[in-house]
């Protein structure tokens, strides 16, 4: 799933490539992707792209006061095309294409960008709104993970009894962090994913806050300026424990372990984070019964 660093990089990419252009045709290849009907998506045609915004994991284009906003969800992505096929895509089928936006640049070029989604579970969402806060998933967002102050961060953690892994990824508490970067932040901070948020000492909260900013800012620095097509690979290359189950921890050499749930999993190092204790894996516990 694209998280704050990748979405920030996509926003910067769109600022550099789309702002100043005019929206041409908008092709809907998967009707389920569009979550609004007023204003209609056709109202974007002929509008100037004046700005780009980011709200947590949402990114959007300001088209003369009407916003085209997307949340890429778990398997969505944005793909820039310099020379798109002018023929409208065929709706339905097995293509990952969900939506295509054609543009006209001041230089006379006609690029486009695609919103695509892999897999069978279609969760990518697109809205056309006059105000981003009309979107419930934006209006309810907590403060951005790179904008929150340490005092605000401490208050957020004290306000919930959730495990720290869950609290960091709860978008209503803190916007922008997902499964991957929460793994990296907790590994770097040497905290167990199962630690109670409200029970952290002041020193641990300070360390976690500083670590969160360091990990995210480093990822943003690696991501911004990358071509959109290379961002996924850049994200993977910077990971120390996430998606590295069975590999050695780059800090201590212990084996990176995994805890699995219904649709996702997280990774951690027992030596670095839990004092050597192996966390219960619900999937393995069921298999052993």
UniProtKB/TrEMBL annotation:
Protein name, per record: Fpg/Nei family DNA glycosylase
Protein keywords: DNA damage, DNA repair, DNA-binding, Glycosidase, Hydrolase, Lyase, Metal-binding, Multifunctional enzyme, Zinc, Zinc-finger
Taxonomic placement: Bacteria, Bacillati, Actinomycetota, Actinomycetes, Mycobacteriales
UniProt source species: Antrihabitans cavernicola
Cofactor(s) this protein requires: Zn(2+)
InterPro entries to which the protein is assigned, alphabetical: FPG_cat, FPG_N, H2TH_FPG, Ribosomal_uS13-like_H2TH, Znf_DNA_glyclase/AP_lyase, Znf_FPG/IleRS
GO molecular function: 8-oxo-7,8-dihydroguanine DNA N-glycosylase activity; damaged DNA binding; DNA-(apurinic or apyrimidinic site) endonuclease activity; lyase activity; zinc ion binding
Record domain Formamidopyrimidine-DNA glycosylase catalytic: where: 2-119
Protein family according to the UniProt entry: Belongs to the FPG family.
Record domain FPG-type: where: 240-274
Protein's GO biological process: base-excision repair
Catalytic activity: Hydrolysis of DNA containing ring-opened 7-methylguanine residues, releasing 2,6-diamino-4-hydroxy-5-(N-methyl)formamidopyrimidine
Keyword Isomerase: no
CDD domains for the chain: BaFpgNei_N_1
């Amino acid at each position: 799933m694209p998280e704050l660093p990748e979405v920030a990089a996509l926003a910067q990419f769109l600022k550099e490539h789309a702002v100043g252009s005019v929206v041409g045709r908008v092709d809907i290849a998967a009707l389920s992707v569009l979550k609004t009907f007023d204003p209609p998506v056709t109202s974007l045609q002929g509008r100037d792209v004046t700005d780009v915004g980011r709200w947590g994991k949402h990114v959007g284009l300001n088209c003369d006061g009407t916003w085209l906003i997307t949340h890429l969800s778990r398997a969505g992505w944005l793909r820039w095309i310099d020379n798109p096929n002018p023929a409208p895509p065929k709706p339905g089928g097995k293509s990952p294409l969900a939506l295509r936006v054609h543009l006209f640049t001041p230089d006379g070029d006609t690029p486009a960008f695609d919103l695509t989604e892999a897999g069978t579970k279609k969760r990518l969402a697109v809205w056309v709104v006059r105000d981003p806060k009309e979107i419930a998933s934006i209006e309810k967002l907590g403060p951005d993970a790179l904008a929150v102050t340490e005092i605000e961060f401490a208050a957020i953690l004290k306000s919930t009894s959730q495990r720290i892994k869950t609290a960091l990824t709860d978008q209503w508490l803190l916007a922008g962090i997902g499964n991957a970067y929460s793994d990296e932040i907790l590994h770097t901070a040497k905290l167990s994913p199962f630690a109670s948020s409200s029970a952290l000492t002041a020193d641990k909260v300070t360390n976690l806050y500083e670590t969160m900013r360091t990990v995210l800012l480093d990822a943003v620095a690696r991501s911004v300026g990358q071509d959109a097509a290379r961002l996924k690979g850049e994200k993977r290359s910077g990971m120390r424990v996430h998606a590295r189950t069975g590999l050695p921890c780059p800090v201590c050499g212990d084996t990176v372990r995994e805890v699995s749930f219904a649709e996702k999993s997280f990774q951690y190092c027992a030596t670095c984070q839990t004092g050597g204790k192996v966390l219960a894996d619900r999937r393995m516990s069921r298999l052993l019964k």
